[in-house]
Design a protein that fits this description.
Radius of gyration of chain A: 41 Å
Largest sheet of chain A: 7 strands, mixed
Strand content of chain A: 25-35%
Number of helices of chain A: 21
Oligomer: heterodimer
Distance between the termini of chain A: 92 Å
Strand order of the largest sheet of chain B: 1-4-5-9-8-7-6
Number of helices of chain B: 13
Order of helices and strands of chain B: HHHHHHEEHEHEEHEEEHEHHH
Chain lengths: 820, 371
């Protein structure tokens, strides 16, 4: 909503002591965000009105050039002009030599096209008041020649562009805005409609009828005849429309727009000649068609309101008129319609049709049901004044609503605002914005004016009182919250996991949780896998990712590729985030009421109908984990290195893990495994299958893992017991065993541990070797054993026995031999 | 050692005379202190403490002295030896340290090469995304005030996301242009457009009084550009207690702003409208770009001097009723703000895409301890 300050000052006598800056402050304080402050066409120097008295065509040039004699006051000047949209007798705006137009364009007397040009005939564009390419600005004929054009066009005036909150429909008008500003500055405010008495209903004129009672509160029609179709819009209306960002079209259209901006009541003007019989407002028939003013054919539903004559729809109510009843340059008889439509109905239709207008914007936010008669009268009178003709009829159909009443206890004002606002101010603040009050002992009853349908509860009134008192007067104080328990165990563990992963050299990233089924196909995941239980988004941002992710890997791959494309070649990235899975209870949730708490069972049903959301952790690593350089040999990321990251993570969480078999797709069948925690499979890790990586358009080894964090966080949150640490002397033994190539190390380590019994404190693999000396198909594994007894120093006998037991076990179970 | 000679006058043994001994000491101390290194010191030691040193030679003469002179001469020689030894030891220690230092200095390593080398060299530390960090930092402010962290699903029921929060069926934010629906428009399920549904969940499940914050990811149908992202993060706060007013809300948010942006950062409330709060307010923070020198052309605040930070207000009694909370006893306040937006103005990030694209150079700038 734009607010020209000059117009505002007409409504409220602010006086010169109130500056534009103060008005801007008022808007902010009242809750109207000032989106921009526009200086409407800033021109310095002389800008005068003139009459074109003679036009001479200069034909010798490539483009049409005309030499015009323009009468400006008592003098006549010669001006060369390239535009052709004006003729002799037209009134125009002349920038005199010395004037400076927007863009620092200085006007001077100069010789051009063989003629002396003593000024410039201006277009709206050159004056900086619109982007119109229509050529020269031609003024209304009634304008006096030689007068200050800046004044006539409202140039240099401040116009505020406000953002009006959706509950404040009344503020989409000068009437509403002026009332607010007057209240803020404690100035008198006279509602303009008290000046525009309504026209008495008449027997003549077009009849109106409401055929959709619940959706129409007021339907008023005023009929005019004898309007001069060639009458042009007076300059004050034109320049105000211009300041409001609207274009002048014709007198009837301009007048309806002007009154809408002034009062907030959208109006529509029909050509009476194309209307047959009574005009009614009714629900559309399903499938009914109408061509709107923008020449589009609209198909309607039986929930849409239309304005109709006895035969056809002539307008989509509150949104846009029909082409079949449009005012033309021949229209002499006009029907002005002013109505109050149901806000939800208009907003529903507008949204479905993707068609919003200045009218629908106002109806959607509710309009004043007492306004139509006044607005129709105001428009009719302007048409009579500037277009001739006379009012021949006025018909009002109205279902008057009793004024709403809200009871407000005075103590509630303090309870909600925390400010001790005086009783007298409470009442004054409400009165200032048109709310009448009936004062009681401990409470008041507020009588809500017809334009404030947004006010429903005591809190709504308190907001109004506080708004006028000033939000800036709220003095902060800190409530005394009861002592909390801090983060839950699980929340703490989740934080810790992120920290450990970052410490292990990985970078946390956060991707959009969208993907496509095609991603799963790229990952070569079996179609029976749970990850194919995807949830589709009805209205995705793009068809490339129309579903919720069931795995974090595609997002990580995308980010990995982006990093590689930006020259970052060695990295490890991870993401912690939800994956979303479909399930058999993922069904539609029925409508549930409000105003009272739903039953526990209903809440349970809601939750069980939502997605299965599981917190996952995934990491992928590319290139080198440690680069080579002056510090020594580096090494590449590998299946083992990401496994090591996992091991560190689980060590930090004090959860024992184990590996089982090889991973399924998308993992490399030779270099991946399943991860077990507390005997349950929680994820997979290793190298991604080279084909999978290729499917993503990459030709590199990629390593990583994806695990389900929910289970792990649960395990990490379990209580645990401490076992005392041994303090007796220790012994270290190295043991090199030769086993079959395919034998896994973990089984051997396990066997050694078990054979060592109580005395075995730790067993670590530190060397692996294959080669001729060992034999074909064999490998050597060297373990370092740390032995310690709880209660005594170990003897060589002890060590001998342990060694014996271990060798026996590993040779028995795995055919392992001591390497010699 | 020669036999005592009865007619030998000890005073006559020149080498043992006080004068000679002092001369020997003086010479010895001079040589020792003149030694520039351990080799020279070693020579000085041989010259002055060795078998052929004046003191050693003098010592040999003692035997030839009469008994009464032996004691004096012995004392004199012993004292001289100890003086010289002490000086030698001191010098030796000093020269040894000096020698060692020379060796160590010769092992000099250029440690600046650590800074000159790539990050992934000897030790490799990663980073945490600033969004997760700021969520934690913001939550921690409230935890310190006694709040707990509440959570809720991202695929949310329309009822929690809209209806229960007093957002009418015809509210524009519910359109398919703004909200992601799952499977179909009438599935009753959306990707939550705000963290506010967590409020309703907290009110329906927790005991009163309630003090919770809920950081989390939310979704709106915007295309990614420099200032918008369809997937972003908010933090929501909710307090339900007896006697809470706008003053408690303002106090809480002022405290919050101070702990995030430091003292001296001004905030303000402006009247606003949210269906789930009444009265409602916009929470603004003074523009960080043109704070010190107001610039009407400032792009960050559109020349207004303030940055919209979030929304807040008193929980609408209609919402409390839906949660089954007795509005004659309890009132509450709620607030919410965007984490991306907070990050952007706190760290002068001008392009939203840097936050969401996952370029590791972005997170690395912040390290693992966001300040």
């Amino acid at each position: 909503m734009r607010v020209p300050v000059s117009w505002l000052r007409e409504f409220v006598k602010l006086g010169p002591q109130v500056t534009d800056a103060q008005i801007q402050e008022a808007f902010v304080s009242l809750g109207f965000e000032v989106e921009s402050v526009i200086i409407h066409g800033s021109v310095t120097g002389e800008l005068l009105t003139g009459e074109v008295v003679e036009i001479k065509h200069l034909d010798q040039f490539k483009k049409p050039i005309r030499y015009c004699k323009v009468k400006i006051g008592s003098q006549t000047r010669g001006i060369v002009c390239g535009a052709t949209n004006f003729s002799e007798g037209d009134k125009v705006v002349v920038a005199m030599p010395g004037a400076v137009l927007p863009g620092n364009f200085e006007i001077a007397v100069r010789k051009t096209y063989d003629h002396l040009s003593e000024g410039m005939i201006c277009s709206e564009r050159e004056l900086g008041i619109s982007d119109s390419h229509e050529g020269i600005l031609v003024l209304n004929k009634s304008v006096n020649v030689g007068s200050d054009a800046k004044k006539i066009l409202g140039l240099g005036e401040t116009v505020f562009e406000l953002s009006v909150l959706p509950d404040r429909g009344y503020a989409l008008s000068m009437r509403g805005i002026a009332r607010e500003v007057a209240a803020y500055f404690n100035k008198k405010y006279q509602d303009p409609i008290t000046r525009y008495k309504k026209i008495k209903p008449t027997r003549s004129g077009v009849n109106g009828k409401i055929l959709a009672n619940k959706k129409v509160a007021n339907f008023s029609l005023v009929t005019l005849s004898g309007v001069n179709p060639n009458a042009s819009t007076p300059e004050f209306i034109k320049h105000r429309l211009n300041q409001m960002g609207m274009r002048s079209i014709s007198l009837p259209v301009d007048v309806t727009n002007y009154v809408m901006l002034e009062l907030g009541q959208p109006l529509h003007a029909f050509d009476k000649k194309s209307v047959k019989g009574t005009i009614s407002v009714r629900l559309a028939k399903k499938g009914e068609k109408i061509k709107t003013l923008d020449n589009q054919v609209r198909v309607l539903m039986d929930t849409d309101l239309v304005i109709s004559d006895s035969q056809k729809a002539i307008s989509i109510a509150g949104i846009m008129g029909g082409a079949n009843s449009e005012i033309s340059e021949k229209t002499r008889e006009i029907v002005i319609e002013a109505a109050t439509f149901d806000a939800a109905t208009i907003s529903h239709t507008a949204r479905r049709l993707g068609l919003t207008s200045e009218a629908s914007k106002r109806f959607e936010r509710s309009t004043d049901p007492n306004l139509p008669e006044y607005a129709a009268k105001r428009a009719a009178q302007l048409l009579v004044e500037f277009g001739g003709g006379k009012i021949v009829g006025a018909k009002y159909k109205k279902s008057p609503l009793p004024a709403k009443r809200i009871r407000l206890k005075f103590e509630q004002v303090y309870a909600v605002t925390g400010i001790a606002i005086k009783r007298s101010e409470v009442i004054k603040n409400l009165n200032k914005i048109g709310i009448k009050t009936l004062e009681g002992e401990a409470a008041l009853t507020a009588v809500i004016p017809s334009w404030r349908s947004d006010l429903e509860t005591p809190n709504d009134l308190i907001e109004e009182i506080l708004r006028l008192h000033g939000y800036q007067h709220i003095k902060g104080r800190l409530p005394k919250a009861p002592s909390g328990f801090g983060l839950s165990k699980k929340q703490k563990i989740k934080r810790q996991i992120t920290q450990v992963l970052a410490a292990s050299g990985s970078h946390e990233i956060l991707t959009y949780p969208f993907m496509a089924e095609a991603d799963l196909i790229k990952l070569q995941i079996a179609s029976k896998d749970d990850r194919f239980k995807i949830i589709k988004i009805f209205n995705p941002l793009s068809d490339e990712k129309p579903a919720m992710r069931t795995t974090l890997l595609p997002g990580l791959m995308e980010v990995a590729i982006r990093n590689l494309s930006r020259g970052i070649n060695n990295f490890s990235i991870f993401e912690i985030g939800n994956v979303f899975q479909n399930h058999k209870n993922f069904k539609s949730i029925p409508k549930i009421g409000v105003g009272f708490p739903p039953k526990k069972l209903t809440l349970k049903e809601i939750d069980s109908s939502l997605a299965l959301e599981n917190l996952h952790l995934s990491l992928i690593a590319v290139g080198q984990a440690i680069e080579s350089g002056w510090w020594g040999e580096g090494h590449d990321h590998s299946a083992s290195s990401v496994g090591q990251i996992l091991k560190s993570l689980f060590d930090q969480l004090a959860i024992e893990i184990s590996f089982q078999g090889t991973g399924a797709n998308p993992w490399h069948p030779g270099r991946s495994t399943k991860l077990l925690a507390a005997g349950e499979i929680v994820g997979e890790f290793g190298q991604l299958h080279p084909t999978v990586v290729n499917n993503f358009g990459l030709n590199k080894d990629v390593f990583g893992f994806e695990i389900s964090l929910a289970k792990i966080i649960g395990l990490a949150a379990r209580d645990r017991k401490y076992s005392a640490i041994g303090k007796m002397p220790f012994a270290i033994e190295d043991l090199a065993l030769v086993v079959n190539q395919e034998q896994n190390a973990l089984e051997i380590q396990d066997a050694i541990k078990r054979a060592g019994g109580n005395l075995m404190e730790s067993v670590n693999l530190f060397d692996t070797f294959t080669g001729q000396q060992i034999g074909e198909g064999k490998k050597s594994l060297t373990f370092r054993l740390l032995l310690r007894a709880d209660d005594r120093t170990l003897t060589s006998e002890d060590l001998g026995q342990v060694r014996e037991r271990i060798l026996h076990r590993v040779s028995e179970d795995f055919g392992a031999q001591v390497r010699t | 050692m020669s036999a005592p000679n009865s007619d030998y006058d000890p005073v006559q043994v020149e080498a043992l005379s006080e004068k000679e001994v002092n001369k020997a000491i003086e010479k010895a101390l001079k040589d020792i202190s003149a030694a520039k290194n351990l080799e020279e010191l070693k020579i000085a030691k041989i010259n002055h403490l060795g078998d052929k040193s004046p003191i050693a030679l003098a010592n040999r003469e003692i035997g030839s002295l009469p008994p009464e002179a032996k004691a004096i001469a012995g004392k004199r020689v012993a004292s001289a030896r100890s003086q010289i030894s002490e000086s030698f030891n001191k010098s030796q220690k000093f020269l040894e340290i000096e020698h060692e230092n020379k060796i160590l200095i010769s092992q000099k390593e250029d440690l600046t090469k650590v800074l000159a080398s790539p990050d992934v060299s000897l030790v490799n530390i990663g980073s945490r995304h600033p969004l997760s960090q700021i969520a934690e930092i913001m939550s921690d402010v409230f935890i310190a005030m006694g709040y707990e962290v509440a959570e809720g699903p991202e695929v949310e029921a329309e009822w929690y996301n809209f209806d229960s929060l007093n957002i009418s069926a015809s509210h524009p934010s519910r359109s398919a242009q703004d909200t992601f629906y799952l499977e179909s428009m009438d599935s009753g399920k959306v990707l939550r457009t705000q963290t506010s549904p967590v409020q309703m969940r907290a009110m329906l499940t927790r005991d009163l009084p309630i003090y919770v914050v809920a950081p989390g990811r939310v979704y709106r149908k915007d295309e990614l550009d420099a200032t918008h992202t369809p997937v972003f993060n908010q933090i929501e706060g909710l307090a339900i207690d007896k006697g809470l007013s706008m003053a408690d809300l303002k106090g809480t948010l002022d405290h919050f702003a101070t702990s995030l942006f430091g003292s001296g950062v001004v905030t303000r409330f402006r009247p606003s409208f949210f269906p789930f709060t009444e009265p409602s307010a916009e929470l603004d923070v003074q523009c960080f770009v043109c704070k010190d020198k107001f610039n009407p052309e400032c792009k960050t605040c559109k020349g207004t001097g303030w940055i919209e930070w979030g929304g807040c207000g008193m929980v609408n009694p209609k919402v409390l009723q839906t949660a089954g909370i007795d509005t004659t006893q309890y009132s509450g306040f709620a607030f919410g703000m965007g984490l991306e937006r907070t990050l952007m103005f706190k760290y002068s990030i001008t392009d939203m895409r840097d936050i969401v694209e996952g370029d590791i150079r972005f997170s690395k700038q912040f390290g693992s301890v966001l300040r």
